[in-house]
């Protein structure tokens, strides 16, 4: 063990709107947590400066509390070259080839790991959360988009170009709606939380001249995926249809994932996974229908919530201390 009792990792999970930050000890215990706005609209240089300032502040807080900050872990969205420590591309933070690991090391003098937010979240769920009893884990985060992390022996595969795990862009419906990536029919164009909400709004709009569903009144906020799940559970016709379409598409995506990875556990995270039995019961059945000789994985909800990415950042930081 390269890590002793009072030592902590400084961990930052940088998102498009906010940063989740923590001091985490080697056993995965959060000793201190704080959150900051990202304000991505200020541009990438300003965001990098905020990341470095927040990390410095956390290291100072650790020392003030009698702890020793011994490593730094930063995770960001998009395409991340973990080996080179470069944030290659991120739509919602505006990064283009930012050598974040070297910048952080220069500023703080701490060994620094740079990782990908969803892969880090999957790492945390696999080692500390819902997947900790299963060696091979596929973590699937379903939110605005859909992304995944394949974790084996406590580490998440990055791919050759830092872009592994893009499960959301598996083609499931060749004639389906356009995806943000430019191609029609991707999984996330049908089964992400935003796709579910959008599809429901479309159908309700189309059905408002005679359908049974109620369109939101002008000025009301759009119905969310969670609302669609609740309305489907209550038996509402349009919601039931949209929800079933999403579940079927998800089952197709997960069946492909299982064919590729043969995992023991699939952990579903992100907002949509909070739909509980309304999601997991039909999804388990639909996935089972699609498996032939493949072994059925355990399908479970994530347990670490939106702290998973930050905990994963800490694990990446601590892991590099363990490496001789
Ligand atoms: Zn796509």
UniProtKB/TrEMBL annotation:
A Pfam family matched in the record: ROK
SUPFAM superfamilies: Actin-like ATPase domain (SSF53067)
Residues that span the membrane, as ranges: none
Assigned keywords, A-Z: Kinase, Transferase
InterPro entries associated with the record: ATPase_NBD, ROK
Family per similarity comment: Belongs to the ROK (NagC/XylR) family.
Name recorded for this polypeptide: Sugar kinase
Organism in which the protein naturally occurs: Micromonospora lutea
């Amino acid at each position: 063990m390269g890590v002793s009792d009072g030592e902590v990792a400084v961990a930052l999970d940088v998102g498009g709107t906010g940063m989740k930050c923590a001091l985490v000890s080697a056993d995965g215990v959060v000793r201190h947590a704080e959150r900051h706005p990202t304000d991505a609209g200020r541009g990438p240089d300003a965001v990098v400066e905020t990341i470095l300032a927040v990390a410095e502040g956390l290291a100072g807080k650790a020392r003030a509390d009698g702890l020793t900050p011994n490593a730094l872990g930063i995770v960001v969205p998009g395409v991340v070259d973990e080996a080179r420590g470069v944030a290659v591309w991120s739509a919602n933070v505006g990064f283009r080839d930012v050598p974040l690991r070297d910048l952080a090391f220069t500023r703080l003098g701490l060994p620094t790991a740079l990782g990908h937010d969803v892969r880090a979240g999957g790492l945390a769920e696999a080692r500390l959360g819902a997947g900790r009893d299963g060696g091979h884990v596929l973590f699937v985060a379903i939110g605005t988009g859909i992304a995944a992390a394949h974790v084996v022996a406590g580490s998440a595969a990055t791919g050759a170009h830092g872009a592994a795990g893009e499960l959301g862009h598996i083609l499931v419906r060749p004639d389906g709606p356009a995806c943000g990536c430019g191609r029609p029919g991707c999984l996330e164009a049908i089964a992400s939380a935003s796709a579910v909400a959008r599809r429901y709004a479309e159908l309700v709009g189309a059905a408002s001249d005679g359908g049974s569903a109620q369109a939101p009144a002008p000025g009301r906020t759009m119905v969310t995926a969670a609302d669609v799940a609740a309305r489907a559970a209550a038996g509402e016709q349009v919601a039931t249809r949209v929800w079933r379409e999403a579940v079927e598409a998800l089952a197709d995506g997960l069946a492909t994932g299982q064919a590729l990875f043969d995992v023991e556990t699939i952990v579903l995270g992100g907002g949509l996974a909070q739909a509980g039995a309304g999601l997991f019961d039909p999804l388990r059945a639909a996935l089972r229908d699609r498996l032939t000789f493949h072994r059925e994985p355990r399908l479970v909800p994530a347990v670490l919530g939106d702290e998973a990415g930050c905990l994963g950042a800490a694990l990446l930081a601590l892991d590099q201390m363990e490496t001789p």
